[in-house]
Task: structure prediction
Amino acid sequence: MNKFQTHRDVIALLAGLTLPIAVAALLVPFRATFATTAAALVLVAVVVAVAANGSRAAGFVAAASASLWFDFFLTEPYERFAMTHRPDIETAISLFVVGVAVTELAARNRHHRRVAVEETDYVGLVYYLSELVASGASSENVIEQASAELVELLHLRDCRYEEGQVDRQVTRIEHDGNVYVGEVRWGVQTMGLPGKEVELRVQNRGHDVGRFVMTPISGWPVAPQRVLVAVAIADQAGAALSPHLRTACENAPNSSSD
Result:
């Protein structure tokens, strides 16, 4: 979570605490002629505004605050947390339930919007690298760009490329996107990438031609979709190495010759 998002969530949380009491207080002069259900709808609008612009926690706080100050300012006996009329009790409970429901819907909408934006970014990363390969860029430029994309994508401290076939590391990303420590599958979504270094093999025509050795930030959660995109980036890097492989094959001795 970036600093802007954290700052915005704090402001929304404070708004969830203070806006309901401010709005309820503004309705006090009209409470004798203003229906309590109408006042509750006004407070629901406040909860919606907080939930739409803040975190789930801010929305829940706003719902609870709205229900409490509805009771305190707008139901008899006034200026006391003690409702005596059943319709008022039902309205207060409904206010809280609707506020929680609206908050949950807003949170899910934000999640889906964030996922959509991230998926667009993933496509952009792979597309840019594939265009670099198609343009005939040198393998060094492609590897450099791929390393930079992996650092950003997987929240890495560092990423380097090692050419050729070497002994497999214990901590590795397999081609199916699963992460393993030895033979144990690792939950990157909750625990982040494991160990001091993580290996991602680079293949060309089904053969290992090198690997990215990545230094992760310990404990930083990584979505499985990001790991799959990292594999796709490694595949594009492998495609950039194909001219070298063809040259090596053409220069190799023909084993079938006499």
